[in-house]
Amino acid sequence: MTEVLFVATKRPEPGILADSVDKFRDRGAAVHLAGTFHVARVAEELSLIALDGVHQLPRGLSRRSGSVRRRAEASPLGMRVWLQSQRDRPFRRRARKAQVLVALDPGAVYTVWRLAQYNPTAEAHFGMVAALTALDRRRQRGTAVRRAALPAPGVVKDVRRSIDGVPAALMRTATARPVMRSALGARLWRSALSAPGVPVSARVAASRYVAEGMRWAGRTSGAAMALTTAASRIPDLALRAKLLDDGVMTEIAGGIIPRDLHTAVGARLAQADQQYAEGDHEAASEALDRALFLSFHRMLHVDGLSSPLLENAQDHTERLHASTAFQAVARPRGRKTPAISPPAGRPLRLLVTTSANANFLQHVLSRYEDHPRVELRYLDLAARKQLKRVSWAARLMLEDRLAVGATGYRADVERLMRPYLDWADTVFLDWSVGPASMLTTIDPGDTRIVVRLHSYEAFTRWPHMTDFSRVDDLVFVAPHVKDLVTSLVPRLRGAGAPRTHLLDNAMELSGFVRPKPAEARFNLGLIGVSQVAKDPLWAVDVLKRVREHDERYRLLLVGGDMNPRTSVATADYRKRFERALKPLVASGAVVRLGPTDDVPGVLSDIGVILSSSVREGCHVGLMEGAASAAVPVVRDWPFYAGRANSARTLYPEGWVVGSPEEAARRVLDATSAEESWRKAGGRASEHALSAWDWSVVRERFDRLLLDGG
């Protein structure tokens, strides 16, 4: 005979209970009921029901310690029930004998779950119909069924009835951390969220309680699944999009690539399209802003070792380009008059501008501040409060693009930027990010607009929000970056696209040519370890391989550490990196030099310069190392490996390797003798100086800026 134990925190309706007990007994079960309600008051009614036993659970905590009572006072109902009942020995004995444990109401869920931990062979269910279904399966198979089986449809109905209007404290009890840690509790509640007939408000509220409980229990993806499961049953487009958005952000916050990312982005785009069709541009821009934010979240593309944009770029962006709202944003507006040619009778008025990041402008500014053919002005948009505000106001930019007439945002940009545009013949804007989108909101008149795009921008929303019909020249730092960006942004491939150029960064490399001591031959160097994309663990792998042959090899790390506050993904990578480094630093195999203002001095002690990155534009640190006569060993950057343009087409043959094993072989071969090492380093230095030194590259800048391209 199968032993079944019902647990209730409130008096069951006698008629329903009697009918259910009859069904259990018909299946050969003995049914016992334990309750925290006043059993004696309903004893007569219960005696008429064919129960095999009734047990009064403690109704309070008068016999428990003060600390337990204080804990109970601060706990939701379900946990209080367990605190009352856990010392009841007859109740515990009955629970250990039971094959099926059934919570008759939400307040009993936590207690039943805890009992199931002491009796792992028993099934635990919320609702009588689920237990009946389990008994039927048991009879069909002739054996016990798994305790963590999915709840049957009857359970879902019970949950549906329970969650509609249940107080928040009780819901938190039924979705508490211990419950959600178990497969039983998690799957039970996910099934409840997809039940038909649940009122929308109740479904949304329950999904948030379930998600909260799963997050507390460490089930990040389960929390996201709870929200997306509920969303699939909600007809209201805006509400469904919000739940899907929350589900995706739950996983992103946990450092997990969201599995429902495309669904969430699609819902936001559908919301934007609907609102745009209704003429609600503000609401449409908000939905579109969220779609772009989710699609190009930095955790997906910047703070990891892979990116959906490279794994399947078309799948990642096709929803965006199919959106009618986004098509309105992307519509080229052009300019009324073409840009003027460089003036013949006076110096070119050149405005060089960026927002906070002038890392690659030092030599450009030095070149033109005293140039006889140039009158130079420099504008840091981030240094002026109003300009900074409009430069990064993504939502307002989108609303302006959706509008037919003038907007307040456009008027602000016009007021703030027109004086600069009226003065300048040419604007050179570094970084194709927010300021590029801002600047192309307005017609530049006859001022020539030149924008430089490095590598980072390819993995952001900003090129998709820039009106390139108002950009005359778009400068890329490397062919593989150009290939990626033009494949992602259709406007760069059609009529009206700007002229494109390939132009190396401005680097004064001659100052890196310094004598190297003989012992530098055994020092591997990595410049820049502050980003996950640098993947310094790859360099550590190479070091370990070469040290198997000769323990004189060391790895010198130059630069600041990763900031764990950047993202969970960054924090997780840094933890792994620190664990790997700890014994190597202790043994002297790795030397952490930290940030420095004297990179040429540091490079004089480095004999092999590594590029361990998963992606780069041109990797300035590597080029500087090569100029110093360190032997270059370049990982075939995985983001671009195997494509028409990659690290293999950017650097000379022999520099690029496909694996840590190949890297170690190159290091050992190049440094096997001092003479061969110095020859290899000398050839690398000659190439770097002849191809990338400012003395060569500045002529290309002159042709672009002074001669019109």
Please describe what this structure looks like.
There is one protein chain. The protein is an alpha/beta fold and 709 residues long. Strand 10 (473-476), helix 26 (479-488) and strand 11 (499-502) form a beta-alpha-beta unit. Helix 3 runs antiparallel to helix 4 (77-85), helix 11 (183-193) runs parallel beside helix 13 (220-231) and helix 33 packs parallel to helix 34. The longest helix has 20 residues, at 568-587. The radius of gyration is 34 Å and the shape is globular.
Write the layout of secondary structure elements.
Layout: E1 2-8, H1 14-26, E2 29-35, H2 43-47, E3 53-56, H3 66-73, H4 77-85, H5 89-97, E4 100-103, H6 109-118, E5 123-126, H7 128-141, H8 153-163, H9 168-174, H10 177-181, H11 183-193, H12 200-216, H13 220-231, H14 237-253, H15 261-277, H16 281-295, H17 298-301, H18 308-311, H19 313-322, H20 324-330, E6 348-354, H21 362-369, E7 374-380, H22 385-391, H23 394-402, H24 408-423, E8 426-430, H25 434-439, E9 448-453, E10 473-476, H26 479-488, E11 499-502, E12 523-527, H27 536-547, E13 554-558, H28 568-587, E14 590-594, H29 599-603, E15 608-611, H30 620-627, E16 631-635, H31 647-650, E17 656-657, H32 660-670, H33 674-692, H34 694-705
Parallel strand pairs: 1-2, 1-4, 2-3, 4-5, 6-7, 6-8, 8-9, 9-10, 10-11, 12-13, 12-15, 13-14, 15-16, 16-17
Provide tags for this entry:
709 residues; 6-stranded parallel sheet
Short description:
This protein is α/β, with parallel strands linked by helices and 709 residues long.
